[in-house]
Amino acid sequence: MTEPFRVAICEDNRIYGDWVEETVEIYMKQTNRKCEVVRLHSGVDLVQACEQEQLPEIQLLILDVEMEPMNGIAVKDFLANRTEVKAILFLTGYREYMPDAFGRNVVGFLEKTIQPEKVEHWIDVVWNDWMKKDVIMFGDGKERKKVEKKDIIYISGQKDYTLLHCVGQKNPHWVHQTLQYWEQLLMKDSIVRVHKSYMVNLDHVAQIRSKDILLKDTSALIPIGRTYCKKVKAKYAAYDLKQL
């Protein structure tokens, strides 16, 4: 299952934090986009959530600069070597903080004034970047096409080309790329190598048996290669736990 778009708000002023949360939720509803909002009331709360592995993947962190006892700059430095937060938007009432606020994954700055359109702008920037990462662009020999990763059921390989079998498609997409190419491209996704000639999207797996994989909503049975068997079952077990 693809991670949902999450916005985390780390703000020690509850009134302003409530306003930001309401602005985010209203805008996402108006634009028909699903979103989860996570509230954190201090930099210490955020760091502890990371260290205890309780913070889910966050696509946009709206982070207050002026917090005590740990300010937003210190939080940004802590996150520099971690992977939970993909983009940071700083909240500040003082422009003099801005030079120190630049860093890894910082996308912009938001002054503490009631300007919903500024919040909406940065949501759009991060959303559009996030959506691009969930879409694959490829050529099929005739034209450029795109598919969402979640719609790929499985990929089969034939020497120097592959077939992408997708939801709602009677015929697979033909792509002049090897399985090794897709394995490298999708190494952080739920689409995994299960055989020398196949990759499978765990989102579409109904059951993993001793020698093959039964897929949902299709009669296809995908063989499991002997050298892949142990790793595939371990990945599926870990994937299954994430869905609980």
Give a short overview.
The protein is an alpha/beta fold. The protein has helices at 14-30, 43-51, 72-79, 98-101, 116-133, 179-185, 229-242, and strands at residues 6-10, 36-40, 60-64, 88-92, 106-111, 135-139, 144-148, 152-158, 161-166, 173-175, 191-195, 198-201, 205-208, 212-215, 221-223.
How would you characterize the overall build of this protein?
The protein is of the alpha/beta class and 244 residues long. The chain has 2 domains: 128 residues, Rossmann fold (3-Layer(aba) Sandwich), CATH 3.40.50.2300; 102 residues, OB fold (Dihydrolipoamide Acetyltransferase, E2P), CATH 2.40.50.1020. It is built from 7 helices and 15 strands. The strands form 4 sheets. A 5-stranded parallel beta sheet has the order 2-1-3-4-5. Strand 9 and strand 10 form a beta hairpin.
Report the biggest beta sheet as strand number plus sense, adding barrel if it closes. 5 strands, parallel
Flag low-confidence runs: none
Q: What is the strand tally?
A: 15
Helix-strand pattern, N to C? EHEHEHEHEHEEEEEHEEEEEH
The backbone outline, from C-alpha atoms, is elongated
* Helix run count: 7
Task: Specify the CATH architecture of the largest domain.
Answer: 3-Layer(aba) Sandwich
Structural class: alpha/beta
Number of domains: 2
Helix content: 25-40%
